[in-house]
Amino acid sequence: MEVPDVKQSWPNSINEVTIGATKEGGGTRSHAITVGGTRTLPFLYFEGNIPHRPVIAMEVWDIAPTDWPEELGKYFSDVWDDPGKWAKKCVDEFEADFICLRLQGCDPDGENKGSHEAAQAVERVLKSVAVPLIIWGCGNDEKDNEIFPACSQTAAGERCLLGTITEDNYKTLVALCKADKHKLIAESPVDINIAKQVNVLATDIGLAPEDIVIYPSTGALGYGMEYVYSIMERGRIAGLSGDKMWAMPLLADIGREVWKVKEAIAPEEEVPGWGDHIQRGPLWETITGLVYLQAGTDIFIMWHPKAVKELKKYIDSLMKKNSRKN
Amino acid sequence: MIFVGERINGGFKDIQRAVKEKNKSTIQRWAKIQSEAGADYLDVNIGAASNKVDDFIWMIEAVQEAVETPVSIDSNKPAFVEKAIKACKNPPIINSTTADKEKLDQIIPLVVEHNASLIGLCMDRKGSPQDVNRRVELGATIFSEAIEKGLPEDRIFLDPVTMPLKFLQPQARNLIEAVHQFTLLSSPPPHIILGLSNISSKAKEMRLINRIFLVMCIEAGVDAAICDVTDKDLVNSAITAEVILNKHIYSDLFIKAYQAAKKP
Amino acid sequence: MALTGLQIYKLLPKTNCGDCNLPTCMAFAMQVAAKKVSLDQCPHVSEEAKAQLAEASAPPMKLVSIGSDENKLEIGQETVLFRHKEKFYHPTGVAILVEDALANDELDKEINSINRLKFTRVGEEIGINLVALQHKSTSAEDYAKLAEKITEKTSFPLILVCQNLSIIKSALEAIADKRPLIYSANRENFDKMASLAKQYNCPLAVSVESQEELVDLTQSIKKIGVDDLVLNPGIKKTGDTLENLTKLRRLAVEKVFRPLGYPTIVFTNEEDPFQEVIQASTYVCKYANIVVVKAKDTWQLLPLLTVRQNIYTDPQVPNAVEPKLYEIGAVTPDSPVIVTTNFSLTYFTVESEVGNSKVPTYISVVETEGMGVLNAYAGDKWSAEKIAKTLEQQKVREKVNHNTIIIPGLVAVFRAELIDEFGWNILVGPEEAARIPSFLKNEWKPAGKK
Lengths: 326, 264, 450
Prior knowledge:
Number of strands of chain B: 8
Largest sheet of chain C: 8 strands, parallel
Radius of gyration of chain B: 18 Å
Oligomer: heterotrimer
Distance between the termini of chain B: 16 Å
Shape of chain C: flat
Largest interface: A-C, 50 and 58 residues
Structural class of chain C: alpha/beta
């Protein structure tokens, strides 16, 4: 009996976004990373091309964290006084594909560092590692608009990925991206319609769709993950079906979300039914990552070295020959 | 929504004159205007301007010189269609055939051979359909014949034959019900197209009738229309109807989003 | 899944005889599709055509039941490829693999670890569903004894993993009334295995490498009279299994291809304890109806079962609890009062931390339409005014002697206005629920008696 063909033909590809510039491109990175370009659902090689592998950035801060769990501190406390050293350890020892510098120190409710110091942190990381860079603000719109010009300038030509723009705050960063030739992370609060709207607004004032990565917020496993998962699936299908305002690569900010949940942190003595937390924590982060990977995520920001290693192994096992190595 | 621009039609005085005088610029101006307004295809109909096939080819070539938008070959003369289809740069739509077997036998192989699409009018030599069942039967016949002869489903458009509201008011409802039933024909359902302006022929409130009828038909299953693409209210109504039916992800600037998606 | 007009037309004689009172068979087919006439109106339609039409209205994927009592597991009867299109109906069954070559005390140890694999999350019990007993080296008699022992010492239905007919028969003689899943029929043994399944009324797994063979086998087995089937597309690398599972699901629900309209079962083959959970989680997300794992540690099963819990949540049902005053522990008029939203996740997280603190506490839940603390604030679903109103409605004033309310740290901004609205002291609690126990033990102090 003949078995029907279930191969779907998708009218549209997801955009390719390239982060990092080598000397030819006007930067000082050793290589660039390209994500996206797929014309099928995640890992369904039988129906379309998957040219680029998903990538993992490890996160470093511009200040030393004061409340990270010991399970993480034990890897980084020797370097986290200097974002450059921290980034170098992530790349050299833990094989991060690239780095995300979070300007946590600029948070006005925290140390409230200024744009000069922020730019210095950017420079230190750029000098310490040759991998591409994500620069993520402190999350306060006013402050970020204040510090980003200097950071963007410092990194001009390096084709960094800057984060984030939102529905209510996008003009400053879009202007910086156009001027200094960076890419942008477009953020929305677990809302598929707002995610689309942010892209419409940004492209309307001149940002190219190929300069956008979609970040629909991230929920850790057990903490709202399925809401984001379904937004990613639905949006990715729309992008492949022709919706150009949803045809962008996806980003998941995993480390930050996972390492505040009890299941990742609580020691076994506290919750005996949950088993060894030294394994449980990194596994919680890896599993959160893999579920988002199956929904189409292209860029992961992660904290724990073991989680990074295991997710990478998993990605390796799924990628096939028609992918180009970054 | 697939929009087919209706303006390059010998029924319009300026087009008629342009054909007679071999003045490309009028044709090309309308080609550009309609393309910029978002037309996915440009209907080309020589009307009463001439009965020479070479003039028809001339029109098509003028359009293709000005824009990349593919053409809808609007003629029921097999000789015209045969020549025109060869002159097309991009795969065209053939507008149209009826459900008569001889016509289908003649035209479908041509459409298949040239990778074109076909509009099937739900009528035959017995005349225009007067009720729901006849439309559905004729549409189903055209569809199944086309599939049998190797035309892929997504290149078949069924046209339930739009009639003027002013003269044949009950037919509007019959058409809408027939469209509902067309969607039961196959899974996924076939393309369904309207010759929209016919609904408001000779009426006063032409634009109002056009856009409300189109929206009602979109809900029933219509996904293509030959119409005035420069009528912004019409185009926006169609886009809005499709968003309401969850065919596109909503965003506050959904009209802008739809137009941005069309940019090459 | 109804047949389309064209599919119905194919079942008709195509003579256009007019006996149905319609001009052509095509017209008749469309009327049947539109449910305006019944297929019976054609006096010439074959019995087979009638059967096909009847079958067409059956669900695209079979529902298969394993086990026989309140612990039975139902799998299958799915209708979509993506949870956002509708929902996933029957959560993936998780089975723990146990090998038969175990000494008695080892078996008891295994059973103890397996019985520990249950957790409570967000007010819901989550746990494994099945035990898969893999035959490696024991005799038929011993295998059957093992199977029996497992059913006595655990509450889980069994999967009998063995392709040897006499061993399966022996096990079925012992525990058929518990309706274990027989894994499996293959190219060589399918007719006899299917007869056993029929005789003992047990569901049957079918395991072959190629899709075409699977199609042949299911149809042959169905003819023998067994239709409670579970499909195994072979044991392969994750990526290949992912593709196979996707194809099977599409064939079942999109093409309504009946020969493959059954639930699926897959086995993990990753040895590393991390990678095995990763592999199993993939299959839970993507179309496996049963996943068999070797993992037995709680730290491995907790995330796997949480993935299942999350993915199988009904996207259309708001995750909200009833807005009322909850009592956690033996509350007294001196007990603290914590305010929170009615988003399930928020409520159960707070409740769990309050439980951990061992401080009896009132939790006042405000109606925020299932939104969490920050989302409700951003979406204007709660305010100082609404909190005050809720506290009044819940008669909090009469429940406690102190006059202090604790609000979530993330909405400290409500404090001043709430003091005005409600007239009591407002203590700003921690931003993270994990800090509730230390907060209640060290910082909670009633600000003053009434």
